[in-house]
Amino acid sequence: MPKTNETVLEINLTALGKNYQYLKSKLQPNTKFLAVVKAFAYGSDSVIIAKELENLGVDYLAVAYVNEGIVLRDAGIKSPIIVLHPQAINFDVLIARCLEPSIYSKKVFLKFMEVASSKKQANYPIHLKFNTGLNRLGFKESDVEFIILELNKNTSVKVASIFSHLAASEEVSERVFSESQIERFQNISEKLLAKLEYQPLKHMCNTSGILNFPEAYFDMVRSGIGLYGFSNIPSEQKNFTPIATLKSVISQIHSIKKGETVGYNRAFKSTQLLKSATIPIGHADGISRDYGNGKGWVTINGKKAPIIGNVCMDMLMVNVSEIECNEGDEVILFGKHSTAEDLSKNINSISYELITAISQRIKRVVYR
């Protein structure tokens, strides 16, 4: 890519394809693949990513909320889309846009069947989520009888899949717990499938599950963070390439005298003559104030420049005393080498939080 002259998020579709193919290489040919594109495709661009994944042949897409699914439908995405946390107020439009709800409680189940019936739906696809230990959303095992009873009363819906979510699939120390979750899900599945006249898909594995628990692939797997180039298993990171590079430029360079301060609240006070560079990106763009005062850095001409002072809304300042640079030079905040994971660790965070926080006001540039 040519050097940038403004703040951009570059999205590498070749890397996306390689990450996808690596995960697919772990599976049996008939195992389906669900790609998670919620949160603006983990901060990249949900439409661009969904279209590319659709071309690559994914079987399902998943979003968190109905409005995210509507954006994809408006962009012409035809693939089945699961809405992982639908709100009852949006069930009408969910059905109108052919989105498929995750049903996780008795209340949500009954409300969706009521709406589906009122819309004269028949066999509308739903996905039943069971809680096996994450304790976030999901039916209990004891709800199986209720579910069967309601399904037998109503032909407006049909179970397309049953699924659960591993709580700690990347943690070696939690392997026994993960195995207990898998066993619990198998027991639930057997009870439910024994009373259905058809066979819904089963799925449980997230990215780390794909890498660590082949016995839990079932009929389909789900991947989010792996597609975007990150592994929560350090030994596996070499097999993934971050798809996004956040770049900016040096707007202005200052000479800061000993005793002078930089930024709001005079948070940085210079103890010697130094050179600072101002970069046009700030906490409104997703670079948290936590990265200020030496916690974060940028890369300029291959060298790290620590952030000094507080991160401003639209700007941040870095120490470039030891770097040969000029106004207009390119700045890399994170990418393939100095990664979002590396940066986020310095504030006890994770790559997910940093990449999903990148503002949509930042221009996206797509390349292969």
Across the major sheet, the strand order is 11-14-17-16-15-18-10-1-19
The radius of gyration computed from the alpha-carbon positions, rounded to a whole number of angstroms, is 24 Å
Low-confidence stretches: none
Oligomer: single chain
Total domain count:
2
CATH topology assignment of the largest domain: TIM Barrel
* Assigned CATH superfamily of the largest domain: Alanine racemase
- Report the total helices: 11
Beta strand %: 15-25%
CATH class identity of the largest domain:
Alpha Beta
Keywords:
single chain; alpha/beta; 368 residues; eight-stranded parallel beta sheet; TIM Barrel; Lyase, Ornithine Decarboxylase, Chain A, domain 1
Describe the structure.
It is a single chain. The chain is an alpha/beta fold. It has 2 domains: 31-228, TIM Barrel, CATH 3.20.20.10; 244-367, Lyase, Ornithine Decarboxylase, Chain A, domain 1. The chain has helices spanning 13-24, 38-43, 46-56, 66-74, 91-96, 106-118, 144-153, 175-193, 207-212, 340-345, 351-356, and strands at residues 8-12, 32-36, 60-63, 81-83, 100-103, 124-129, 157-163, 201-203, 220-223, 244-249, 252-256, 261-262, 268-269, 274-279, 297-300, 303-308, 316-319, 330-334, 363-367. Strands 11-14-17-16-15-18-10-1-19 form a 9-stranded mixed beta sheet. Helix 5 (91-96) links the parallel strand 4 (81-83) and strand 5. Helix 1 packs across helix 3 (46-56). It is elongated, with a radius of gyration of 24 Å. It starts with 7 loop residues before the first strand and ends with a strand.
